[in-house]
From TrEMBL:
Family to which this protein belongs: Belongs to the HAD-like hydrolase superfamily. SerB family.
Keyword Transmembrane: yes
Organism: Streptomyces rochei (Streptomyces parvullus)
Annotated region (Disordered), positions in chain: 25-50
Protein name in UniProt: HAD family hydrolase
Classification via Gene3D superfamilies: HAD superfamily/HAD-like, SG protein - dephosphorylation function
One Pfam family, short name: HAD
């Protein structure tokens, strides 16, 4: 109270009462929290997550190398080549980009931009309905078997808790929507290609949904859906998605590249790597994901064995 001596008696009295009121309130809150903690049973586990029935929570999943092995746009390119949308030399470029993605384990901006430009030029003049129909076939041919079971289990845990689950990807929104629907998810945010009269023009609406653009899309969707981002979760493999992961209260690094792994460890974010079946660096992953991790690790081992043969 010595610090209050310079005030007039009246102001000192009012200020002192405020200080005392604040201290009393803080002490009451502390005692209340302590009593609640002492009364609560010690189960030895973290609080349930995701929280069942929390309608203001949702989950946002990156697609490439998080939900699915490899990049969706490259698998899409393979399917278009099979249907004579372009020539062999273009397929070779798609194959090189896909090989880089799988070996390097992260997105190369130049490769991704080249892939997007190639895809836009290829679909120019085609009808949106045609590409959506083809997307269904391509999912069955190239994508379904590349879904990580562990990540799929994480998404299902949110769905089982009554929460909405969204894909957030730089892939074309039509393809993202097909994948989301096939996985039973709520929907997808993706890169939007311009169309006029239901026909692609070969241009984008805005920019690719990548890096900071993903974070802006998630923020906009959360506002529209009435979500509390501090209660939401986000999942990604790439350091490019740190802006999106930083938006939510429950960020997860899935199959992380080296930069994201380092960042996640520094901030004590939860980690899960389905490429090797390693345990999470932080506890608290839904139990269903543990089962998926075993399946994911087994699938990876089988794929590696087949490649070596």
């Amino acid at each position: 109270m010595a610090a209050l001596r310079w005030l007039t008696p009246r102001r000192r009295s009012a200020t002192a009462r405020s200080v005392l009121a604040g201290e009393a309130s803080a002490e009451a809150a502390r005692k209340s929290a302590q009593s609640a903690q002492e009364a609560a049973p010690d189960t030895g586990t973290e609080p349930e997550f995701p929280v069942h029935g929390d309608e203001r929570a949702a989950a946002f999943f990156d697609l490439d190398n998080t939900v699915m092995q490899g990049a969706a746009i490259f698998h899409f390119g393979r399917g278009l080549y099979k249907r004579k949308f372009f020539e062999t030399r273009d397929l070779a470029r798609f194959a090189w980009q896909q090989a880089w993605f799988r070996l390097a384990g992260f997105e190369d901006p130049e490769h991704m931009q080249d892939a997007r430009d190639s895809a836009l030029s290829i679909v120019k003049g085609h009808r949106v309905s045609e590409l959506r129909s083809i997307g269904e076939e391509i999912y069955d041919e190239y994508m379904a078997e590349r879904i990580w079971p562990g990540t799929r289990a994480l998404a299902q845990a949110h769905l089982d808790a009554g929460q909405k689950v969204w894909l957030v990807t730089a892939a074309p929104v039509e393809i993202a929507q097909v994948i989301a629907r096939r996985l039973g998810l709520t929907g997808a945010l993706g890169t939007v290609a311009e169309s006029v009269g239901g026909v692609y023009t070969g241009k984008l609406v805005g920019e690719p949904l990548h890096g900071p653009a993903k974070a802006e899309a998630v923020r906009a969707l959360a506002a529209a859906e009435g979500l509390d981002l501090s209660r939401c979760a986000a999942y990604s493999d790439s350091h490019n998605d740190i802006p999106m992961l930083s938006l939510v209260g429950h960020p997860y690094a899935i199959n992380p590249d080296s930069k994201l792994r380092k960042h996640a460890r520094e901030l004590e974010w939860r980690l899960r790597d389905y490429r090797t079946g390693r345990k999470a660096a932080k506890v608290g992953i839904p139990a269903a994901a543990g089962v998926g991790a075993v399946a994911g690790g087994t699938a990876a081992a089988i794929a590696l064995h087949r490649r070596r043969r």
